[in-house]
Amino acid sequence: MPGKQSDEEQVELGAAENKPDEDLGGLTAEELRQGQEAALALEDMMALSAQTLVRAEVDELYQQVRPLGQGRFGQVLLVTHRQKGTPLALKQLPKPSTSLRGFLYEFCVGLTLGTHPAVVTTYGIGIESTDSYSFLTEPVLHGDLISLIQPKVGTQMPSGP
Ligand SMILES: Nc1ncnc2c1ncn2[C@@H]1O[C@H](COP(=O)(O)OP(=O)(O)OP(=O)(O)O)[C@@H](O)[C@H]1O
């Protein structure tokens, strides 16, 4: 999801604006307009989020409890807020492999999608530390949908009457 590919996505968006009407990649003009609007809203959110990043070391603010998982771009830790004790999931992306723009993209897509009740909530706290960028989400401690679905089998459905 995150990473340095975001610049390329922006280039693609710019290219789409210049294409003739008949070459919309299977989209209607209205769908293309909506997509471009969403991309601009995301750019705005990324610019605002960049201005409100908390500059601190993660350990100063949060106590690490245990790792929750590892993604392609970074690790996810279960942490508690040092003052309040609130449990949170902290997604930490190392600076050597993550650009600021890549981090902001991941963070803001999370903020946007996380408003859906079926998607993990991303909280509006982005942190810039010496070696990493991080943001906080709701912790999911009882497994996600993927852990309940067996490949090529699916889930156990209750039998009908
Ligand atoms: N909020 C969360 N609560 C509990 N576990 C989580 C949470 N977020 C992520 N995880 C765990 O950490 C793993 C890595 O998550 P992460 O978001 O870094 O990568 P991903 O979305 O699985 O894949 P990608 O590498 O494409 O980003 C997940 O597969 C999941 O097991």
UniProtKB/TrEMBL annotation:
Residues 62-161 form the Protein kinase domain. Pfam families: Pkinase. It comes from the Eukaryota. The keyword ATP-binding applies. ATP binds at K91. One of its GO terms (molecular function) is protein serine/threonine kinase activity. The keyword Kinase applies. Keywords: ATP-binding, Kinase, Nucleotide-binding, Transferase. Residues 1-26 are annotated as: Disordered. Gene3D superfamilies: Transferase(Phosphotransferase) domain 1 (1.10.510.10). This is SH3 domain binding kinase family member 2. It comes from Rousettus aegyptiacus (Egyptian fruit bat). The lineage of its organism: Eukaryota, Metazoa, Chordata, Craniata, Vertebrata.
